[in-house]
C-alpha cells in the first residue's frame, strides 16, 4: 500500500459558492502535512471529499490508489477526526468506542489500547456528554485511531484546546507520522502548524497557494533584519551605507538593516567608533507571512461583509 492521498483538480460548488476550485496536491507518509487556510478557504469541504462524505463537482481524490468508497474496511485504512462532538451524550467513552469497533470488525482489545493512548483510561466509563472540550477531542482522536489506520485526517484538532492539550496532540501527530503513517491536519493557525508539521499545503478561496516544506516556507517568508538604536543615527546611516548595507528607518527612529547579519553591522560600528544602545536580530512572524499570502484569497464573508 502506498499510503498516499492524491487530490487532483478537485472542485466543489454549492450553488453560486465555489468552495474548492481546481485543487491538486499529494499528501505523503512519514511526515505531518499541515493543511492551512483562513476561515472558509475550503479545508473542511476538501477533507469531506477525501473521505467520500461529499461528492466533488469536478476532479478526483485517490487514497492508496483508489477512492475512499472502494476501500475495504475503511476504518482500518483511514482514521478521521471531523466533528469531535459527534458522540451520543449518554454513552460512555468505552461504549462509544466498543460500538464503533464492533460495527467495523475491529478487535475489542483496540478499545483499551486507544483509551490508554489518548489518556482517557480514567474516564472511560463516564458519560461522554459530560466531557470537557479537551476530553471530547481526545475521544474523537481515539475513534480515529481505533482501526490502527496508516492514513489519518484531522480537521482542526487543536481548536479550543489549552496549551497542554495542544502539546499532546502535536507530539501524538509526530509520533504517528514517525511510524510511517500519512497525517493530514487542518488549521487556520500558521504559527501552531509550523511547530507541528513538516510539510504545508496552503489554500485560499479553494485554490492552492503553496505546497512546500515548512523549512522552505519559513526561509521564503520570514524577513529577518538587524535593528540598531543609536544616539547618532545620521553618522550610523552614512557608515552603514558606505559599507554597502541598505538601511531603513523604523517609525520609532531605530535603523533597520536588511540582508546583513549582526556581525557585519558590528564591524561597521567598531570601525567608525559609533555608539549603539541596541543591536538585535528581528524576524517577521510567520503568521504575518501567512496573512500576506492569503490576504487576497480570504473568503468575502469571513472578511466581514
Ligand atoms: N454544505 C454547504 N452548503 C453551502 N455552502 C457551503 C457548505 N459547506 C461549505 N460551504 C461554503 O464553502 C466554503 C468553504 O467552506 P469550508 O467549511 O470548507 O472552509 P474551511 O476552510 O473549512 O473553513 P473553517 O476554517 O471556517 O472551517 C465557505 O464559503 C462555506 O460557506
UniProtKB/TrEMBL annotation:
Domain (ABC transporter) ranges: 5-230
SUPFAM superfamilies: P-loop containing nucleoside triphosphate hydrolases
InterPro entries linked to this entry: AAA+_ATPase (IPR003593), ABC_transporter-like_ATP-bd (IPR003439), P-loop_NTPase (IPR027417)
A Pfam entry, by short name: ABC_tran
Source organism superkingdom: Bacteria
UniProt entry tagged with the keyword Transport: yes
Record PROSITE patterns: ABC_TRANSPORTER_2 (PS50893)
Keywords: ATP-binding, Nucleotide-binding, Transport
MF term (GO), any: ATP hydrolysis activity
Family designation: Belongs to the ABC transporter superfamily.
PANTHER family: ABC TRANSPORTER, ATP-BINDING PROTEIN
Protein name per its UniProtKB record: ABC transporter ATP-binding protein
Organism: Acrocarpospora corrugata
